[in-house]
Amino acid sequence: MKLAVIEGDGIGREVIPAAVEVLGAFGLELEKVPLELGYARWERTGTAMSEEDLDTIKSCDAVLFGAVTTVPDPSYKSVLLTIRKELDLYANVRPVKPLPGVTGVTGRNDFDFIIVRENTEGLYSGIEEIGPDLSWTKRVVTRKGSKRIAEYACQLAKKRSDKLTIVHKSNVLKSDKLFLDVCRQTADAYGVEYNDMLVDSMAYSLMMHPEKYDVVVTTNLFGDILSDMCAALVGSLGLVPSANIGKKYAFFEPVHGSAPDIAGKGVSNPLAAILCVKMLLEWMEKPESRLIDDAIADALKKKVITPDLGGKASTSEVGCAVAKYIRENCIV
Q1: For 38-66, how does the pLDDT look when each residue is reduced to its tens digit (9 = 90+)?
Q2: What is 103-234's CATH superfamily?
Q3: Which residues carry out catalysis?
Q4: Cα–Cα separations (whole angstroms), residue 67 to 57, 134, 258
Q5: Where are the domains of the chain?
């Protein structure tokens, strides 16, 4: 298997090496293909990602990605949106689950849900026009896009508690009626119990009653916003991983951004990137993936944690601690 490893910008250059060390501790046969993409390269060369880079990525099976800085320059083409569309990574999957001993703004740890976000259309369609007096973006909702994300969510729900929540805003955005109808029809076909929520009500309910939810499916922008908001439930953006899944490829990245304010200081939390390794191993159907939870729990118990969680460990020290536990306990 070939894995493209892209550190990207800012703290991506710190958390991805820690995650790669953890991945290496499993002793799996993986060909790692390093690539430099992102804003720093764009500043230096005028190109954030070339066609050759995209061809290299397509020659790999999966991508482990750090973070990228996107600037409001019309000549800068989003690396992430380009990769998602070119590889047809239609399902963005973001688990929201507390880590042992770490609580977020609500002080609760009785929840475990997954947000499944449509990843290729909606308001991220890329169809837009920018002008001095009028700017617009076309929101695209198709039956095909809605059906395949609904099928992914239903398949996931069947492996969990057989419950699905469909999040939309069809009372105002009429294009959401198609998304809602297709999700309902798909859930019926799969025999999955479902309900639906307006996105604003859902935002409130997730903060107040996160334990009520299991698999949540929604459109592109809503899923982006809700999943970032839910990082507050677990305690930090530095604790939330994500996967971008397609029929052929998979792409794994922490939810956090490039965080230029702390980049280079060695204090960024690598746990989200390490949890991305867990999701990668799950995608590869490797049972060893479960060992990452134990390794992270051990590091947390020993207080080998970064400053955002009240500790004094560096990014690399956390990565080393997790990798050490895996090397000592992994039977390949």
Answers
A1: 888 888 888 889 999 999 999 999 999 99
A2: Isopropylmalate Dehydrogenase (3.40.718.10)
A3: 124, 169, 200, 224, 228
A4: 16, 31, 5
A5: 1-89+240-332, 103-234
